[in-house]
């Protein structure tokens, strides 16, 4: 952290400048408050304007996000608010994705609420504020930012889940989600407190330094312990060293693990996933879509920011003190349980909920792989004095990029799928049973096609983005020489087969079964079809244009696990430079002057 | 000569692609919403102008840059396509003399055929779909030709295969036509399999699929790793080229994978002209010449290519003699002529192969379009037994058809004479590992095939256009007239078929006649063939020792001899065909039929190859498939595998569901168990629990701690662990400001 | 002076009491209060560590936690009220509408 000395009169301009860096997030947050205000003054007939205002703000934020996304100045990462938040390509991608997902939800939520007669003006406001929180997580460079982001998002979502006051399951889902979420928050906070105790900092850079220091002291414990066992009198300095290392680590490791547990809850990993199907089912379906996309993206972003980027020193990722064992174990459980539970589901919402759990399992594998690679890179940097350009770091970057790619692709397809479910609930009884989807392709070919594309993307069928997501993710994990991880990749592939079964069941129902006598009523308005069209289109387009997408994700990853500075910019440029530097001179013609001219 | 970067090449591909997209997206709408005539106008104007733009760009870039500007290599980097680890495959386009010839032929002939199609397909309800596919085909073919990396070429290769499939089965409601499309697709897939494996084989050595990179590796001749590295005990060059050649036999309809091409005549006739005569089927030849430096490193492959080409040329020609379907005759003729090209390529006569490719594109397209006119005129009747005397009704078609027949039969001075002669000369005089045996074989096969060619082509011409009409009265009176939109392309193509041969004016003719024209094509392609021409030893490409080399050329006497033989053979068989079929089926023809007996039967039934494939490959395959289905799939997979697995998975799913019973407290407990699990992965680890206490508890802390040292007014830096007698005090040392927390 | 360890013991004790409350109580209100207890345990630890390290990060953090806890409590109470309205009790064992 390099801070300018604290000078009062530069403070205001610095703040404005920082806000400029954070424009998308600031706009979304501001719009959350603005919408709250407009709702307070709104006459009854004014409510549908809320949606337009919200969409306008989100469009504004999206444009702001685009300017940052396209600006190479941020490639190396810019710290704002004295290192509280950071703006880099990673956060720029997340900003765009989160704003887009939020806009998708906003397009459907109003129609849904009106149809189900629980319309309320704060809905758009809460969606914006929750997205603001999620974006804050994406930008987090400090434990406080992470915590505040997660809480801002979670508290808004609790309200959104319980907002359907005229249906009992909604409040029940809200209470379940709230109690578990608050419990997890408390655990998270305890973990944070311990981390702070161990490292004396809440900023990620500071924590990284503290972690490194703790383990540097600890490195000699084995030697000293052996020496002491043999009866030598250790020098006081040596014993101090041991104790200091142990003491710090004694706070550090439980802290890391508690935070990890809480974050695994947020991404709904098994066994902290229990709330997911219930909350997803009970929530208004657009909110479910929001939870399955925005909240999940934020959770994964938190894991990446804190664990992959910060807690990836060698000691902290490898057994016996590392956290990756836990995540690998949880990933195994998550994908297995998620897929198995989805197989026997007839309720589409629950089915998709379990499927989203299964996807988290795959993602966690990528997290483990990335951390392992970074750990190796850290060790080689420390012992060999490398400049950080090792193969392991590249492999780690690739793994982070593939995780980022996967979560984005997943979130897009998942939003589309849930929005289709929301769209099919034009009357009080939502068409949630699979048989009600029979023959949908005949009644609504467009929507059925969109849903199918989203499901196939979730399933991972080749032309869709989901396939490439899985391909790159699993490849990155498989690169890791750890046989257990390689086994988990094979296991994940088997799980993907199970996943294909229940996704295809829906597709088959839509296309090959005869429609029931009573057609499901659909939502009015063009919002849902538009969202499904865009998500399905993106699911195909991201697959077809995979290389630019991957390049972008790679860029984000390259700016990720590296302190800001010139070396980072070097790394960022490396890929492109290698491409540009190809020798375009044709060897055939170069060897001999042409006899033709 | 360095490659010059350019931006124009992409538009040559994009133009037809845009046309295809337009017609795919809006064509249906236009056909439905607009009046029929207007809609068709819109559709074909878009399609034709797309191709015209491509054609114009090709010609302008060729003329302005390559001819006038003297730049022989243009490279365009479109897009870093696959870029992963050490693999860098760019979507790069390359315009060099070889691909220039190809794009000129493809866009030129393609444009004419597009124009012709307007007349031929005038009443088809799927007009937009037809033109969309045709444009898509053009784009794919141009990708194939312009690709700098073999993977890009492969994209085009698959694309043209797809379009071919779509267009053969264009009238898919007819089951036979749809199955012809499928047959073509499957046959091509077999070839593609070889192609991909060939690419892999090359990649193992070169680590790139870029043509230039491969050239650089191959340029080292006998020292090249392509030769020195062995794959299954065989040099990689041989393995790779054999596999690639398998791909070529599929795409270019050579033995053993040729049977799809005659069936492919199920598609609209302009499609046959464009795809199955002029362009797509020549892709295999193009590929071999493109990779001539690799093929030249594999003498075995070269010999196989030459022999397969020669045998195919003769084999298909003998089938063509007895066929009655006008398009089938032309189809077998195409197979036969492609055989010639492979014969040339296999002997190392690269220029001759490309020369024949080009002239064949002109006269065969003309023949196919002419047959299209005839078929259209005869109300979609294709049987020449019910034709005859059509010259009176359609003089222009007959005239152009006749010119093309002269060209394909190799009559001086039409194009086919020059190109075929060059192939036959090359077959006889070029060096090979198996010279001179292979020279005699290749030349013999080629010459006999040339005789057959002259015979069946003129048989076709006379039966169709001369004599008296043998069909019903109705067809004769309600004959469809010739429209300019159909005959103008014919005339242009016939003109090209007449004059194109002068691009390859043989040296010997110059000596004899005193007309010293340069061999334009040979000079033009020099940069492409230069690498393989430098090889020595077993990989030598060029004239063999036989006393006919003189100053780099075949001696005048030898060349004139070959010309005389082939011309004589062609003329003799032309006249014989005229005698037999000049006025319908003569008595003599019947007598010959009876005399040849079984041989005639065999040719008529295409040597029962389809039946053979059916019996040897298809049926056993189906049987095997059925067996697999019955036994393996139904019993093992469905019964034990799927049934068992699904049952197991379902049961496990039920087990998992038991835990989700809706009770929050159980959920909360699960959460805590999860956190416990996470903690247990570290603290449950025996390494950790055994190490820690021994390390911590044995270390004595410094006695003089006293808790007095303070930093920044904070607590002394110490921690007490435990109570009472278990109490341990841990000194954290002086707090180092900034060490951990930075400057905050 | 009180050594840092004692603060830590207090925090852990509070935290465990909170966890016990969450797991054992069936009244949603008490569960909520237990969660508040856990948050405050973390606050104690944060402030103590702030003092140990001699910087203010922990104290700042604690203030934010207090604010967040207030918001969380408000939302939680609102949800509990909604539940109470529909079923006249707030026993979390009775929440059985949503299940597999």
Write structural notes for this entry.
The complex is a heterotrimer of chains A (597), B (744) and C (100). Chain A is 75% helix and 1% strand. Chain A has helices at residues 8-21, 23-41, 47-69, 89-115, 122-139, 143-162, 168-199, 204-218, 221-229, 236-266, 275-282, 285-308, 314-317, 324-343, 348-384, 391-423, 440-443, 445-459, 465-479, 483-512, 527-544, 546-558, 566-580, 587-591; strands at residues 78-80, 85-87. Chain A has a two-stranded antiparallel sheet. The model of chain A is unreliable at 1-8, 564-572 and 584-597 (pLDDT under 50). Chain B is 68% helix and 5% strand. Chain B has 29 helices and nine strands. Chain B has a three-stranded mixed β-sheet. In chain B, strands 4-5 form a two-stranded antiparallel sheet. Chain B has a two-stranded antiparallel ribbon with strand order 6-7. The radius of gyration of chain B is 35 Å and the shape is globular. The model of chain B is unreliable at 689-717 and 733-744 (pLDDT under 50). Chain C is built from three helices and no strands. Chain C has 100 residues and is mainly alpha-helical. The interface between A and B is large, with 89 and 81 residues.
Can you give keywords for this protein?
heterotrimer, A: 597 residues, mainly alpha, two-stranded antiparallel sheet, disordered N terminus, disordered C terminus, C: 100 residues, Helix Hairpins, 3 helices, 78% helix, elongated
Oligomer: heterotrimer
Total E-strand runs of chain B:
9
Q: Quick one: how many beta strands of chain A?
A: 2
Helices and strands of chain A, in order, run as HHHEEHHHHHHHHHHHHHHHHHHHHH
Largest beta sheet of chain B, briefly?
3 strands, mixed
Largest interface, counted with CB-CB under 8 A? Answer: A-B, 89 and 81 residues
- Count of separate structural domains of chain A: 1
- Percent strand of chain B: 5-15%
Percent of residues in helices of chain B: 55-70%
Which sheet architecture does the biggest sheet of chain A show?
Answer: 2 strands, antiparallel
Helix-residue proportion of chain A: over 70%
**Low-confidence parts of chain A lasting 5 or more residues at pLDDT below 50?**
1-8, 564-572, 584-597
Number of helices of chain A: 24
Helical region count of chain B?
29
First-residue to last-residue Cα separation of chain A: 63 Å
Topology:
The complex is a heterotrimer of chains A (597), B (744) and C (100).
Chain A: H1 8-21, H2 23-41, H3 47-69, E1 78-80, E2 85-87, H4 89-115, H5 122-139, H6 143-162, H7 168-199, H8 204-218, H9 221-229, H10 236-266, H11 275-282, H12 285-308, H13 314-317, H14 324-343, H15 348-384, H16 391-423, H17 440-443, H18 445-459, H19 465-479, H20 483-512, H21 527-544, H22 546-558, H23 566-580, H24 587-591
Antiparallel strand pairs in A: 1-2
Helix pairs in contact in A: 2-3, 2-5, 3-4, 4-5, 4-12, 4-16, 4-22, 5-6, 5-12, 6-7, 6-12, 7-8, 7-10, 7-11, 8-10, 10-12, 11-12, 11-15, 12-15, 12-16, 14-15, 14-20, 15-16, 15-19, 15-20, 16-18, 16-19, 16-21, 16-22, 18-20, 18-21, 19-20, 19-21
Chain B: E1 4-5, H1 9-33, H2 36-68, E2 74-84, E3 87-95, H3 97-120, H4 127-146, H5 150-168, H6 175-206, H7 211-218, H8 225-228, E4 230-231, E5 234-235, H9 236-251, H10 260-263, H11 269-278, H12 283-290, H13 292-295, H14 299-322, H15 326-346, H16 350-377, H17 395-409, H18 415-429, H19 437-465, H20 473-477, H21 484-499, H22 507-513, H23 520-533, E6 549-550, E7 553-554, H24 556-581, H25 587-596, H26 598-604, H27 609-659, H28 664-683, H29 686-698, E8 718-721, E9 728-731
Parallel strand pairs in B: 1-2
Antiparallel strand pairs in B: 2-3, 4-5, 6-7, 8-9
Helix pairs in contact in B: 1-2, 1-4, 2-3, 2-4, 3-4, 3-11, 3-16, 3-21, 4-5, 5-6, 5-11, 6-9, 9-12, 9-14, 11-16, 14-15, 14-19, 14-26, 15-16, 15-18, 15-19, 16-17, 16-18, 16-21, 16-23, 17-18, 17-19, 17-21, 18-19, 18-24, 19-24, 22-24
Chain C: H1 4-24, H2 28-53, H3 57-87
Helix pairs in contact in C: 1-2, 2-3
